[in-house]
Hints:
Elements: H1 2-39, H2 46-55, H3 57-62, H4 76-83, E1 87-88, E2 91-93, E3 96-100, E4 107-110, E5 114-116, E6 120-121, E7 134-135, E8 156-159, H5 181-196, E9 200-202, H6 214-229, E10 234-241, E11 252-255, E12 258-261, E13 263-268, H7 274-291, E14 296-302, E15 317-324, H8 329-347
Parallel strand pairs: 7-11, 8-9, 8-10, 10-15, 13-14
Antiparallel strand pairs: 1-6, 2-5, 3-4, 11-12, 13-15
Amino acid sequence: MYNILKYDRKFKISLASLMLIVLILFSLFILRVINITLNKKGADNLVYIQLLNSSMPVIKETYYDEQSYAENKTTISSLALEAVNLNILDWVDYRIPLLKDSNSNNVSMFTPLKLYSKTISKTNTKNETKKIKSLKAKPAYNPSLKKTLNQGKPEILLYHTHTTESYLPCKQDSTNNNSNVVAIGIELEKELEKNYGISVIHDKTIHSIQYDNSYYRSAETVKTYLKKYGDFKLIIDLHRDSMGNAKKNNFLVNMNNENVAKIMFTTAQNNPHYKENLKVVNSLNTKSAELFPEFCRGIYTHKRGKNAFNQTLNKNSILIEVGSEGNTIDEAKASSKYIARLIAEILNK
């Protein structure tokens, strides 16, 4: 009997010790999660929204709509991996056929998610940038595509739903138009007008001070211009993507001996113009692969986008993501001349 009681006491002590260790480890994990979450700025803090929505459904229905954060790459699962210093690296595109163009043998593709080829690395290399090999690419500028500029007939409307999305060395969100996506828009406008004779209206309105309703505010801006000008050959909502747990090199390519931020097109299926929108971005994506291999990361299609990313407003509406918060402003600006070339290839031929 004595031995049984002695064994039972040892078992209880061991169990209590184990529970204490688990509690300490869990507490440390929670503290790290909180610390990482607090360091996520503005639009990148989707985790906070997800936690609120799961724990307080009334708030979900009234205030916080996850569709507003559809482009965001930071989720509860990715945050948990980051908290234990495990990052998903070396992502590869997972592409599936979506829509076959009746006038072409090409099948349109989209990237609904990213899979990883080397599973998990225990090294936090989120901001690591290794020297990348310069890829063979056509020159950015093609003088044969230049035409006479007609400022009286704007062909492109350029705007920014998330106007404050910024690049290094600036913080992730800034109203400084020398550091955020507006700066990329300014460069793109110059390239299109000066080098290709394509007239651009560039709207710099800040739509994202209150992030959740950004698309509704930018939709009103687009409607105002459509009412005034009737139509545009292209309506571009220019954004900056979010890295999530990816490495910077996923968003960087070296072309013509220059580091350039990669681009990606985003579409939404909850949209009556979806097929027309997809046809436009598919032509740009195909041309990019032909002229500038690896410059474009592909087409990312959401089943439901907030306000369908305003693509319900016009059949020629597109959304372009330029780089991520891990790219420098110079890398993002360098993308503008390549984007301009792609647009000119479509509009000026």
